[in-house]
Amino acid sequence: MKRLLLLIILIISCLAHAAADPFTGHVSLVILDAGHGGKDPGAGANGLEEKDITLEIVLKIRDELLSRGYGVLLTRDTDTYLDLRERTDAANSADFDMDGFPVFISVHINSASSSSASGFEVYVKRSAHDVAMLSPSSSDRLMLKYSGYDNSTLNDMLNRTNLRLASLICSGFEKEFPLVNMRGVKSEDFYVLNTAWMPAVLIEVLFISNPDDARMMTDDVFQRSLASVIADALDNL
Predict the structure, then answer these.
(1) What's the rounded Cα separation, in Å, for the pair 140 and 94?
(2) pLDDT at residue 13 above 50?
(3) Please, what's the largest Cα pairwise distance for the chain?
(4) Do 100 and 24 meet the contact criterion of CB atoms below 8 Å apart?
(5) Is there a contact between 146 and 154 (Cβ–Cβ < 8 Å)?
C-alpha cells in the first residue's frame, strides 16, 4: 500500500511538471541590453547617436528594477562595443534564481529616411522560428529549468510569454503616453531574439530621425517613466 501511494505521488508530480510552464511565476533576472556601443554608434540624427540614448535608458530601467527587488544584468554599462553573439551569450550563461526565470530586453532607437516617421514599437521573434532552447551549449541552470520538455513545447510557451510581455509594455506605454504614436507589437528575425534562450523582446524607443521624438527620448522624465512602464510589465508578466 505504501509503495502504491508513493507511485501515485510520483505520477502526479510528473504530470504536474509536464503541464507546468517554466515561464510562469516571478521574473528572477532581467538582462538589459543597450543596443550598439563603442565603434558602433547605431542610428544618428538631430545631433544624437543611438548608442548613447540606449545606454541612458537602460541605466534608468536598471535603477527602477533594482528598486523593486529584481536581479539585473547589463550586457554593457559603458560606451563599449559588443557583437550580437556576446550579448546573448551573456544572457544565456547568466546565473538566476531557479524559482523564477530570466528575461532578455534589448533597447534600441528607431530611425527612418523620412523625418515624419514616429512612434513606439516592440519586437518579438517570429513564431515560426524555433529557438534552440535545449542546445548542448545551454547553461546548466537553463537545462535544469527546461528539463522534461521538448523543444517544440518550450518554443510554444516562449512565444506566448514573448507576446504577453511585448503587449504589456505597449499597453503600458500607450496609457502613460497617449499622444505618442503606438506602432504596436511586431515580429522579426533579429539575432538577439532568435538566440536568447528565454523570453526576449526588442524595444524600439521612438525615432531619432523625428525632431519631436528625438527631444522626447532624451528627456529625463520620459526615460524614467518608460523605465516604470517596463518594470510594471515585468511585475504583471
Answers:
(1) 10
(2) no
(3) 77
(4) no
(5) yes
| 1 Cβ neighbours under 8 A, 6+ residues apart | none
In Å, how far from its chain's centre is CA 28?
A: 13
- Report yes or no: 206 and 119 within 8 Å, Cβ to Cβ: yes
Other C-beta atoms lying within 10 Å of the C-beta of residue 158: 26
Strand pairing class (48-49; 44-45): antiparallel
Most confident of 18-27, 68-77, 136-145: 68-77
> What phi, psi does 102 have (nearest 5°)?
-90, 155
Q: Please say whether the beta carbons of 131 and 230 come within 8 A.
A: no
Q: What does each C-alpha distance from 171 to 8, 11, 65, 144, 191 come to in angstroms? A: 44, 41, 19, 33, 25
Separation of alpha carbons 31 and 188, rounded Å: 20
Task: List phi, psi (to 5°) of 203.
Answer: -100, 130
Lowest mean per-residue pLDDT among 7-11, 16-20, 66-70: 7-11
> pLDDT tens digit string along 135-145?
887 888 998 99
Q: Can you tell me whether residue 183 is helix, strand or coil?
A: strand
pLDDT in tens, 80-104: 999 999 999 999 999 999 999 999 9
217 three-state secondary structure: helix
Q: What is the pTM of this model?
A: 0.91
Tally Cβ neighbours within 10 Å of residue 112.
Answer: 14
Burial of 114 (C-beta count, 10 Å sphere; 0-12/13-18/19+): exposed
Q: What is the pLDDT of residues 164-183, one digit of tens each?
A: 999 999 999 999 999 999 99
> In the block, which residue shows the cell 512612434?
119
